[in-house]
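Morning run. Coffee first, then this:
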Amino acid sequence: MIVPVHARLVFPCRATALRCLVICLVTCLAVVVSACSRTPEPAQFAGPTMGTTYHITVSGADSLQERRGVQSAIDRVLVETERHLSTYNDTSEIALLNRDESRSWQDVSPTLFVVLQEAHEVSELTGGSFDVTVAPLLGLWGHESGGAGAPGQTSFQASTSGQLEQARKSVGHAKLELRNVPRMAVRKSASGMRLTVDGIAPGYAVDRIADALRYLGHTDFIVEIGGEVRAAGQRPEGGPWRIAIEAPLATRREPLVGLRLRDAAVSTSGDYRDARIDTEGRRYSHTIDPRTGRTTASALTAVTVIDANAIRADAYATALMVMGTEAGLAWAQAQRVPALFVERTAQPGEWRLLESPTFAEWRE
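And here it is:
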């Protein structure tokens, strides 16, 4: 959307059951352009998808034919993603896989295999902090994969230790086996295993749309789905795409840190907009540690990660929220991953910011 100079528009991001994605776009989806500028207006594309929304800005798609080509490419990726990865769709490939209890090898599509393979690699890299087999634990903490639920809901009973131990028998990335010979296939080695790719599918779709736009010859664009962002080239008036990371506020949206993004992706995971309150009035983070089965509890309230690909940024942000500030910062430093950790303080509205050395390179 083009807005007059000095105006600012913040697009809301819808939280998934697994995580809250909290990046707001300042001068990409809300491009600030001087009224007298002669720069051609970029093409804007938006709509619903995967239980959230998408917003895409493409420079150089000036003709009606070019814009139709871009929209067609976007639609193909989104239909593919919904068909194979959506936990909102009972007939999707992953939904059918979740209902299968045979514990035998099941052939899967390249789309699902690539996402599960990427998830497995991130699980290995992060010591199991990211895990797509976490779905059996979601319902125990008031979340159901594929449904965002209502923040602050009071409709669930806090899980007992016995319930958690039983659910954990079905959780663990090592219990999901993958092979690509003779065909792409997966096997769930534990009974009751269910998968959720809600924490990685938006990033996958963002990357696929970026690839499709490049195939069409476009070099300057920004793609956002549910808060996952990937930028290429430069904005219409020149220079890197400029975005803002939101402050971790539950009831309003304010920018916290500005970034200049070129040929990179950014993702934020936070715990402050999709908390759950049980029947006893106790509040629980929506971030679940797959290694313990319990929700996280610390001063850490949000993590932002920058990576070359949205799928990795998406998964890393979740993993670092699970790790916590100390372990997460050490991991990001060792892996040279640009990451920003935002902690609550005793003073409302004030935050403690810690960042890996490589994150500073992207700051405004």
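Residues 71 and 312 are 25 Å apart (CA to CA). Good start to the day.
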